[in-house]
């Protein structure tokens, strides 16, 4: 359930990038699917579990549906998926996916009995991986890199809060909500209010246009 | 057999890119090998099977032989692997590898008992993956992205035809030939006659030179 | 032991790249960790072994410590991690990691009973993989590509010497030292004295600034 929500929002970000790159319908499907299931695939490979979307292909179908809907919008309503509004949708959907996968990754790591630092590393890696492969496939500079605000930090906070609350014995629902609040909250705060760590000195910080 | 054919043609594309980038002999070998075995490696990892080239290293040796032959040509016959002829060879070998791996991926997915949508997604992903990592390693924009014609579409068609014909009970040879015809035919049609989906409006379509 | 040394030096290269890109502390941690454990993760996935850092998270913690130390230096001593000195440290740490992972990869391949060509391919692939994902994540052209000198060659030599000496029945310590000497020696020779294969004719060789 939670996983499918994460898959869908990441698939949406993949479809938005495909729209910007003027790909064809199957290009949309590939980019949406790889972005949507990428992080969970890495997680399951690392845990040596059966990859989640293979047995239950509903997530692949969801990604395809999101992709085709986006292609239709881009085709029949030109310009809708361009510009500032689409860029903001991309960034916020990415933020939601980041928080969801950080929580799920940390939970699955704990459930598999991995040590605590690994469960946090796990959540943070799998939460950021989908966006990384989206941007690399699209030939863009990875968002994880040019983001001057909380990005990996938000993923780590979401995973860390999930692990911490679970260790303290909170009910699963509270663990999940706490993790989501920490991950999405930090990311949202940095997007809305510019929260960040103190910047490193130096002026060659990469910008989105680099 | 079929798999080795796919490995060799993808290895050839890797070697051609290495020639364009003026790499050294072991650079040729790395790029040829990673391109040749990349898609099948992803497929086997996802299916939790033993990775195909580890037990039977003949494919790795084939990739190395292709790479060294290409390096020798580039060294002793300068210019042979540059220019328009080499570019066309690259694109057509990539097309052959795409069709072969789409069919093999779909077949192996079916043989492993994965659901139908997953088998198709599988074939399409593993068919495109070798070329994706080749282009990323070479610092090029992935062909999957700038290709304005049928590319992912051809991979999906090859995988889809394979799955469809197999479900209809055709003999394995016919399934294979039908899958190859669908995949390679669509790609060839788009390369020769410009077949494609209707283009999305907008003028920022990336070009090979981007 | 040897593995942790390789993880630390590769983590250091990831942190140095993060410093150049002016990332935030968790960006440092992500880049250092992914670079440090990347090659070994690929190796363990291919061998279908439990991924090494999941059960024993000390390596993840080491990467994080290296990353935070580097961030602190970049923050409190601006300029220290820039410039020519840092570039040289990056290249030499990368060389050390390359040799270490070539030997470890080949050894683990042999221990898992894979055929000889696969064990060598293995060592070379896993030795170069960490640096490849570091450079791709950072949006840089992979060092493996623009390096005109012995790079993949050094990795293959280290893996090949390890496999050869092991086959000849030398003691494990000698196998290891021989592999390290071959891998690091070739790389060092090419960095210090410009050792390389004869260059391919043509003038479009990519440069670091490409």
TrEMBL record, chains A, B, C:
InterPro entries: Gly_transporter. GO terms for cellular component: plasma membrane. It is a multi-pass membrane protein. It comes from the Bacteria. Residues 2-73, 92-165 form the Glycine transporter domain. The chain crosses the membrane at residues 28-47, 59-77, 89-106, 118-138, 150-166, 173-197. It is found in: Cell membrane. Its main location: membrane. Pfam families: Gly_transporter. Keywords: Cell membrane, Membrane, Transmembrane, Transmembrane helix. Belongs to the UPF0126 family. PANTHER family: INNER MEMBRANE PROTEIN, UPF0126 INNER MEMBRANE PROTEIN YADS-RELATED. This is Uncharacterized membrane protein YeiH. The lineage of its organism: Bacteria, Pseudomonadati, Pseudomonadota, Alphaproteobacteria, Hyphomicrobiales.
């Amino acid at each position: 359930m939670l996983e499918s929500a994460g898959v869908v929002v990441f698939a949406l970000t993949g479809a938005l990038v495909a729209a910007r790159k003027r790909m064809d319908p199957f290009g949309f499907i590939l980019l949406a699917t790889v972005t949507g299931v990428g992080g969970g695939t890495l997680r399951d490979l690392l845990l040596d579990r059966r990859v989640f979307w293979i047995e239950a292909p509903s997530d692949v179908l969801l990604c395809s549906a999101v992709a085709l809907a986006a292609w239709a919008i881009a085709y029949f309503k030109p310009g809708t998926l361009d510009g500032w509004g689409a860029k903001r949708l991309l960034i916020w959907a990415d933020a939601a996916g980041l928080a969801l996968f950080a929580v799920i990754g940390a939970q699955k790591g704990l459930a598999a009995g991995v040590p605590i630092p690994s469960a946090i590393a796990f959540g943070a890696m799998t939460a950021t991986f989908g966006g990384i492969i989206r941007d690399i496939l699209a030939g863009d500079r990875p968002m994880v890199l040019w983001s001057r605000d909380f990005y990996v930090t938000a993923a780590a906070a979401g995973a860390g809060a999930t692990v911490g609350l679970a260790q303290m014995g909170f009910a699963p629902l509270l663990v999940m909500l706490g993790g989501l609040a920490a991950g999405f909250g930090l990311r949202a705060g940095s997007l809305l209010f510019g929260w960040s760590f103190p910047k490193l000195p130096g002026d060659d910080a990469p910008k989105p246009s680099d």
